[in-house]
Structures are given as structure tokens and as C-alpha cells.
Amino acid sequence: xxxxxxxxxxxxxxxxxxxxxxxxxxxxxxxxxxxxxxxxxxxxxxxxxxxxxxxxxxxxxxxxxxxxxxxxxxxxxxxxxxxxxxxxxxxxxxxxxxxxxxxxxxxxxxxxxxxxxxxxxxxxxxxxxxxxxxxxxxxxxxxxxxxxxxxxxxxxxxxxxxxxxxxxxxxxxxxxxxxxxxxxxxxxxxxxxxxxxxxxxxxxxxxxxxxxxxxxxxxxxxxxxxxxxxxxxxxxxxxxxxxxxxxxxxxxxxxxxxxxxxxxxxxxxxxxxxxxxxxxxxxxxxxxxxxxxxxxxxxxxxxxxxxxxxxxxxxxxxxxxxxxxxxxxxxxxxxxxxxxxxxxxxxxxxxxxxxxxxxxxxxxxxxxxxxxxxxxxxxxxxxxxxxx
Length: 388
Known about the structure:
The protein is α/β, with parallel strands linked by helices. The chain has two domains: 15-264 and 353-379, TIM Barrel (Alpha-Beta Barrel), CATH 3.20.20; 269-339, Non-ribosomal Peptide Synthetase Peptidyl Carrier Protein, Chain A (Orthogonal Bundle), CATH 1.10.1200. Helix content is 37%, strand content 13%. It has an eight-stranded parallel β-barrel, surrounded by seven helices. Strand 3, helix 1 (37-46) and strand 4 (50-57) form a beta-alpha-beta unit. Helix 4 (90-102) packs parallel to helix 6 (133-147). The protein is globular and about 60 Å long. The chain starts with 14 loop residues before the first strand and ends in a 9-residue tail after the last helix.
């Protein structure tokens, strides 16, 4: 890692989410298939902040499905323990929160209202749900009550599309319900992950929310982006998603930047290889299955080695690795002394997609209140799909 330490030291702004005091105002965004215990532990080894689990559906949790019970497990080194829930039924969400609190499985609970995936929004879930203000308010109020002393937060998007924005009204409702913080991904469901996040929306939300921390999310690819977001919007902290894919050391950059230290990780290829191997080892521990862990690490290859000179055949072999022994053999073929490639290794990561007309239940936009005709469709919206 390259360290540049010629900037004056200053105290990092602290972020309080209920009783949880964070030394730096940084949150790892929940990402399906990514923010499992293995990745959270790896990111934590590099930096500081709050590291949130993959999204877990409230219905599956209440039904205690084996997969949901596995996903809510935390390693003993993880503290505070943070879990994100997704649900569309106020009663079921409250039951899931009650279970987590009663069984002491979480120190922080987040609710997902940001998923833009069509198979979720077409049933009224995810980013489509806050349009029904009575349903949104009921879910959040019951969840906060069920959480008791455990801080409960919400993460949402601007709205369905530019003509159907919900974030200001939903933010005020969440604040009134007593949530511990509100995170805004500054895009609509229609935008998916395309284009440029509208940071001005974060500023607008911050201006109307007076008693609850507001966190900004969207297009944080570097520590410099995080500082700029805070400066431009006045938000209380940042939520980092795709920017840390294949770059767990970004959390070290963020911690340093918020402390006023000019420290930036510029890893040589050997350091990237070591992090990649460490990630794979943690996945083996998480899955308790080397084959499954190696299948999971394959999707991270392009992110870790972005910008580095790694031959196509070697990349292809890494993306089909089947055990740790083979992984060691492949990593040994890299030029471990190859220096950091600079801008080629930075910038956007993950699929941005393209804008699209949101899929919604028939007649969903006709009323801001939940209609009986939509209740059945909502029950089908609780799928194991995350995002936001």
C-alpha cells in the first residue's frame, strides 16, 4: 500500500446511529451475494464503519428457513452486528424484528425500501413501496416499536421515477416514526444504477430532516468522492456500495480521509492477490464448503484485477477456480511486483444498467393509499432479491 501523509491531521466526524457511535461516518451498503460475513470481515480488517449484512426477507426469517438463519449469523469479531431486512407486510416485518431483538442477533437493523429490480417492483415491493404512504408508515412504525432499544434505520431511493418522487415524504414519515437514521440512494427506480446520482436530492432531504442523521449513497468510487458528498450535501455520513467491489481497502482510504490524513491504498498486484486469497479463505469459513466458496469468489475476479495486466487465459482460469490449491497455483503466475495501475483500477464498478420504465402492479400509481386489489400482489414481492 502507498501512504501519503502530508495532510494535517484532524478528528474524524463521528456518526451516532442510536447508541452506536461510529468513529468514521461510513456504512457498507447491503449487496445481495456480496456482503456476507466473509466480505464484511475483510472490509473491517482494512477500515472502520458499520458493515451491513446481505438483505434478508422478513418472511423467510420468521419461517426460520435454513438460508436465512445462516445469513443472520455473525462472526465473533463483528461488532456492531448489523442486519438488513426486507418486507412488505407490517405484521411480518415486526415479527422478524422482534425475533432478532429477543434472540440478541443484531445491534442494528435496517429496512430496505430501495430495491429497483423489476420482479420486486412489479409486485409493489422495494422502491415502489413508499408510493403507498400508509403502508410505508405502518411498516416503519411497527418495526421501530418492535426494535425497542435496538436502532432501526431505513434505506430508500428518490422514488419510482422523476414524476413520482417519494423520498421527502417518506423521510419525514420515517423521522416521525423514530428511526435512527435515513439513507438515500440518490437515484429513482427507473434509473436503476445508470447515469449520475443526484446528490442534490440528498441535500434536500438533509434540509427537511432535522432530528435524524441523513446518509448519502450513490457514486462513491473513492474517499475523495465521500468527502465531496458530505461537503456538497451536508449529509451526516456515507453509504458505500459498488465502489468497494474488489477494493476492501477503500474503507481504509475512507477512514484516513475523514481523519484528515492523506493516505490512499495503491496496492501492487501481489497485495491484490493476497486480499483475493484472504477473501476466498473467509468464504470457505463462511460456507463451510470449499467448492461453494470457490464458486462464489469467481464473480469477484474482474473487480479485484480491474486495471491490472493479467492475461485473458489467467483471468478465465481464476473465474473458473475450483479449490484453494488451484487458486494458489494461479495466483503464483501473476507478476506480484506489478505496480498499481492508477486510474485504470479506479472508477465505476459493477453493472450500471440502463434507465427503464419501472414495472409496477396495474393501477399502482392511481392512489397514494394501498388498495385491497394490491395486497395479494404484495405477498409475491417478498423475494430473495436485494439492492437499492
